[in-house]
Amino acid sequence: MPKTKMQGVVFGLIMSYAMACGMEVYNTAIKMGVQLTAGGLSNLTGLVFWEAFQEMPYMGLLVFLFSNLWGNRLGARFMARHCDPARDNPYFCRLMRQAGTIAVMCPTMSLAASILFQIIPGGAPLAQLPAIWIGTVLKNFPMAFFWNMFAAAPLTHWLFGRLFPQNA
After folding, report:
1. How far apart are alpha carbons 99 and 139 in whole angstroms?
2. Residue-range definition of the domain harbouring residue 155
3. pLDDT tens by residue, the chain, 168 residues
4. Contact (Cβ atoms closer than 8 angstroms) between residue 64 and residue 16
5. Burial, 106: exposed, middle or buried (Cβ in 10 Å; 0-12, 13-18, 19+)?
6. Predicted model pTM
7. Which one of 13, 39, 79, 121 is separated from 164 by 20 to 30 angstroms, measured CA to CA?
8. Domains held by the chain: number
């Protein structure tokens, strides 16, 4: 885990872009109707990744910004309520922090995506924002949870351990 401010920024950037990458591919595939084809999401194409990677730079930046403003703090509070680092398994505490952060960041990023993709360019009426936002959270939460737990966080910890071996 990060021990300095600079290491914290590097860790945060890796995690933010790992999450943005997975979520953008998922949402782009849905937007392109890939899940409706025979074989579903197993039919991803290079075009899905190309479209997703065009949005990833600014979405990753938004994830980094929002997680630093409130996501990480609220995730740490969630962990503190459900885990005692002095008594509980450190891995369990890490999972509780991830779960708390996901519980905050998924609705946050779903709101940002609803505004950026449905309201502004999509022309949906602003009065529909609450309904669009709830639908977006319902669509994104399972993917955000499992992507974070089983892909983004392990990749981030592995890569961070390679960049800063003294912290592994």
Report:
1. 17
2. 5-167
3. 889 999 999 999 999 999 999 999 999 999 999 999 999 999 999 999 999 999 999 999 999 999 999 999 999 999 999 999 999 999 999 999 999 999 999 999 999 999 999 999 989 999 999 999 999 999 999 999 999 999 999 999 999 999 999 865
4. yes
5. buried
6. 0.92
7. 79
8. 1
Neighbours of 163 (CB within 10 A): 13
Of 9, 19, 17, residue with least CA distance to 102: 19
Rounded Cα distance between 58 and 33, Å, is: 23
**Count of residues for the chain?**
168
Distances in Å between the alpha carbon of 28 and those of 12, 34, 47, 88?
A: 23, 9, 10, 39
**List of residues 6+ apart from 51 with CB closer than 8 A:** 28, 32
What the block records as the tokens of 56 is: 């990833």
